[in-house]
Structure formats: C-alpha cells, structure tokens
Amino acid sequence: MNPLPRIPSPRNPAPLTIADLGEQGLLQRLQPFCAPGVVGDDGAVLQPSPGQALVVTTDTLVEGVHFSATTTPPEAVGWRSAAANLSDLAAMGALPLGLTVALALPSTCSVAWLEGLYQGLAQCVGDYGTAIVGGDLCRAPHLVVSITALGEVPPPLVLKRNAAQVGDAIVVTGYHGASRAGLELLLDPDRALTGLCPPSPQQRDQWIRAHQYPRPRLDWVPWLRSALAQGQSASASRSFAAMDSSDGLADAVLQLCRASGVGAHLVQADLPLPPGLASWQGLATALDWTLYGGEDFELVLCLPETVLAGLEAASGAGVPAFGLRRVGTIVAGSQVTLHGSDPQEPGRVLSLDRGFQHFSELF
Amino acid sequence: MNPLPRIPSPRNPAPLTIADLGEQGLLQRLQPFCAPGVVGDDGAVLQPSPGQALVVTTDTLVEGVHFSATTTPPEAVGWRSAAANLSDLAAMGALPLGLTVALALPSTCSVAWLEGLYQGLAQCVGDYGTAIVGGDLCRAPHLVVSITALGEVPPPLVLKRNAAQVGDAIVVTGYHGASRAGLELLLDPDRALTGLCPPSPQQRDQWIRAHQYPRPRLDWVPWLRSALAQGQSASASRSFAAMDSSDGLADAVLQLCRASGVGAHLVQADLPLPPGLASWQGLATALDWTLYGGEDFELVLCLPETVLAGLEAASGAGVPAFGLRRVGTIVAGSQVTLHGSDPQEPGRVLSLDRGFQHFSELF
C-alpha cells in the first residue's frame, strides 16, 4: 500500500565512520555500486556512439541547503542527486552515458549513511539504464555531492533554451507543486491533518515520493526525437526549446523566454496543479507551489502545433497517465503573463525574482 | 626575473559579495571566462572525434583541506583545480575536450575572489587548448570546487593502472618534492633563510610556482601515443600502465603495483630530487618530500625498454629539460622497495600508509 520505494537499510554491524575505514577502505566499500572497473583509475573510459553530440551537465547538492542529512534518508539524497542530473540531460534531448560522483564529506559521516547515498544513486541510474562511471572522495567540513552526467544526442535534435518561437505551444509533462507539497509534509507531518480537505494517504505518499524520489523524464526522449525529426523536415530544420522545471515552472518559462527573446501567455486554468492540492491548501497557495515550488523535474517544451501533435502520436499507447498538458503559448514581447478566465483582463506579470535564486532570496 | 605568472588582480570598485549580485548576476560575470554559449543551458554540447574513447575524470578541492582562501591567491586555486584534472587526463593518455566547474560557495565570498578563481581556471585550460564548457553554482557554508574534465583517446592507447608488467622500467617526467618545498616556503617564508645551504631566489620561486601553478604533463601525450602505438605493434597489443603523481611518487608506484599485481624496485640515487633540495633540507627530508610530498602532477609510467627508447626518440628535440628519468623497475611479488648504493642490501619497504590518505592520516 505504501508506494515509496523500499530500499533495504544498510546493514553495518558497527557504527563505522569513514575516518575508521580510510580512503582506500571506503573506495572498496563503494565499488559494488559503480560500473565495473570504475574504482582504481584516474578516469573512466566510455565509448560514445558514432555521430552523436556529447552533452555534459553538472549539479551540486549541499547539506543544509538542498537537503538535511538528519531528515532526508541517504537513499533519497542519492536518488535526487542522480535524478536532477538525468533530468538536465532529458531537457537537452539526450540519453545518458554515465555519471560521475564527487563527494566532499566530513570524517564523522557514517559508512552506513554513505552506503545509503550510493544505494540511492545506483538505484536511480540503474532504473534509467546507466551507471556511476567515476568519482572522487575528499574530506570537508560539510557534505557536498557534485554530480556530472554525460549523455548523447543526434546533433540536430539538441533541445536549447534559446529556440522558442512566437506561436509555439508551451507544454509540460507532469504535475507541478507536488514536490513542494511533499517537502511541506516532511517538514510538518501534522499539516496533512489540517486544511479544508486534507490529502488522502495516497496523495500524501505521492507528494512525498515526488519530493524524495523525483523521476527524470527520460521516458519522453525517444518520442521527442521522433516528433522533432518529423517537425524539422517539415519546417526548415528549425531547433526547438526545452528546459526542466527543477527551479520551478515559472522559472523555466521565464528562462526560456529570456534566452529566446520572446514572451509567454500562460492560462491559469491550464496550469498543472496536482489533484487535491487546491482543496487542501486553497487556490492561492496551490498556484504558488505549482508556479514557484521547484524540484518537480518535469519537461517544459516549446513546440509548434504540428510537432505537438506528432509527439502525442509518437508517445501513443506508451504515454504516462498525465500525458502532455498545454499551459500557454509563446508570444511576441518579453513579458510572461498569467491569465484568468476573462480573456480581456491584462494578466499578472511573472518575474524571476519570485523564483528560486541561490544567492539573493535565500540570504 | 620573477617566473610566477602575473595575473592582473580583478578590478572591482566596490567590495561586492556574491550575495549582492545574485545567481543570475554572478553567471553574467563568469560568462567571459567560459566557452561561448556555456551559460544558459542545462548542459554543454560537445562533439567528440569519431572513433575515440571518452575519458571522464573528477576532482574536488575544499577550502581548508586542499587550500586556504586566505593564503592562496584565487588565481592559483583556479589554476591548480584545472591542472589536477588535466593531469588525470594525461595519466590516461587522453587530450582534453573541456571541463565543467561545480562551485559550492558561501554568500560572503567576494566577487573579486570568484573572478580570480575563474581567471586561474580559464588561464590554465586556455594554456592547454581547452575551455570551461559547463558548470553549476550553489551556496554552501564552505567553499568547494568540483571539476570534471573530459578528454579523448584512441581506445587501444588508453593508459591504465593495472597494466604494469614485470621488467617494465618505471619512468617519471619531472622532479618530485618541489611542490611540497613550495608549500613549506609559503607557510613559513623565513624558512628560505635557514638550513645549511638556503635555496637561491630562483629555486624558491620555482618551488612556489610548482606548488601554485603545477603544469599537467599533456605535453607528453602526443609523444606517448606515437611510442605506445609502435610498442603495441611490436608486443602483441599489450596495454601500458601510468598514473600521475598527484598523491606522491611513492603512492603512484604503490597504486600501480597493487592494481597490476606486481612489485617494484626503486633506486634511491635515481629518485628525481629537485636540485638544491637535499643541500637545503638534508637528504632524509628531501627524500621524504620527493617520495611522499604529493601534488607534483608528473607522469609515472611503466614501459618496456623498447617503448621507453621509442618515447625518447619520439619526444626528440621537443623534450623538456628534465627529459625522462628511470627511477626503478617492475619486479615480481607485491612489495615496493627502495634500494641504496649497496645492491646486496634488502631495501626499505614502502607502504601506502605513509602517503596522502584523505580520511586516515589527516584526522
């Protein structure tokens, strides 16, 4: 009945810390989680497919900033670290070749915690058909996990931020705000019992899972490639724009518009609110979490109608329950506006300031 | 007269911190140091050469562990971070495609310091014909620089740790111990005036430069490829072993031996002591720094005589002043022993315990 992944907890007879094991001992412990032959050379060797472009993306998680080691299970920290990077690959239209893990960690860190982290990492990369192909360990006063993911994509099918064009439909691959709802429930479990219409146990678990074990949308990449290739032959080899929504849906649309020199018109009634969120938290909070919550790791795509139709056809029977949802349209100008039911009203202007910005809002 | 690179100090009219600029402002400041088009997409896109294997290597520098932000100029931190990764590529026989920089940094970090860091990074990668192709910024209580370097190499010419064979010569590409001498001089400048025979100002500057601005030995890679290809056609396609000496010369030999299931016989008189080191610090300390000092970033290669001769011929007129030095021989067994002038004496057994081990010795 509990949909959270059940990862067996690490079995360590003694409360070993990494200082007890030393670097070499630690490397031996972590070897089973990595691709064969990873531990023991200065670098990993991969063989990219001929003719493909290589995509490289890097993402860092810091204890106390992106997660709390006391409240987040290490498996979830590992899963999320891998998922965030795989999501960046998906947002470029790439499929993964492997990822490297650079860990800076305090000597008091327990080996069980570290093994849990690697278990989460290995489970996520394994679920997406790839592997940990390299890494580095060093000591630090604070836990920092830096991951670099490598992927490949046929060069004409690379998705870029700056390729949105006026008239493109803005479509998303899933609900937004569920991760934020899950975080709130983890921070204050009693909140599940409050509100006009508290979430069902199933909703609660789904939201917590969305926060702890987000799923990068690599499932859409093969369908996207097929639809984009068709779309390109029909429209003079144009490129297409995408981002993931790791920093929030509003941030993704704003970044796409800024990079492409366009604006966007979003329709409030079409926003992908998770079912049950508005009736629990009220519409204002639900909209806020949907637009600015972040960490949903869905794709935000800007596609002409014909390509969107092709994508829906390509995904066909394999399409997940949510499918694709059109949330707005790319327009001329530079403003991103959110419109209510009255098409005559000017709409609310959205700005980046409200989004997740590491060095301004958070200090 | 001063051989230290003169990098102009960043000109900032106000003592800006990164919290003042915010993430987007910071990214705009750092864009000039990166390859065009890097800032602004979820990942970087590279085009590897056909038929080459991809090499990936990751390395992390932590403030207070690997450097002190108060005593190390930011340009040197940047240079060393890049150099350490390029050195790992050289140790695999690879030439660089690009590198990514993941920075976790406190909001109080000055923009001038950060720009200095990027200046050092950009200068190092530029000197070696490559570029910063991606990155990530996030806040953290402590400064952590994680770099991932990408390189490529023809698959048969990949250098591995586990390919040393009995009878191979162990050769190095430069002096060892200079970086440690430089560090000691930086920690205590007055030490340059002590000892039986203090270093000349030129030696002092060379050692400090060896510590702050180490040069990865990518210069040897083209010559190595030529000699290895010849050696392979002569000896049934065998592979060859190498490491860099970032964790010390003794550590490199021990790791090569352990991975290859062999031993080594090192000759004390052939060890690559920097000129002037023994007369300044005495032979015991000089040997200690040469074997265990670390961070010299030279190559340690295990090559049959014929390949060594081919390498010397291939490097020809282009060979740097040091050339190659044979420091010992791969032998059967598992012990690494250091031998004095009397070939009948059993030799001193070297062990990994004495080398730089992040989580044991340092705590």
From TrEMBL, chains A, B:
Pathway: Cofactor biosynthesis; thiamine diphosphate biosynthesis; thiamine diphosphate from thiamine phosphate: step 1/1
Keywords (A to Z) from UniProt: ATP-binding, Kinase, Magnesium, Metal-binding, Nucleotide-binding, Thiamine biosynthesis, Transferase
Domain (PurM-like N-terminal) ranges: 40-153
CDD domains hit by this protein: ThiL
Coiled-coil segments on the chain, per record: none
InterPro entries: PurM-like_C_sf, PurM-like_N, PurM-like_N_sf, ThiL-like
Organism: Prochlorothrix hollandica PCC 9006 = CALU 1027
Biological function: Catalyzes the ATP-dependent phosphorylation of thiamine-monophosphate (TMP) to form thiamine-pyrophosphate (TPP), the active form of vitamin B1.
Catalytic activity: thiamine phosphate + ATP = thiamine diphosphate + ADP
Protein name: Thiamine-monophosphate kinase
Gene name of the encoded protein: thiL
Binding site for Mg(2+) 2: D59, D88
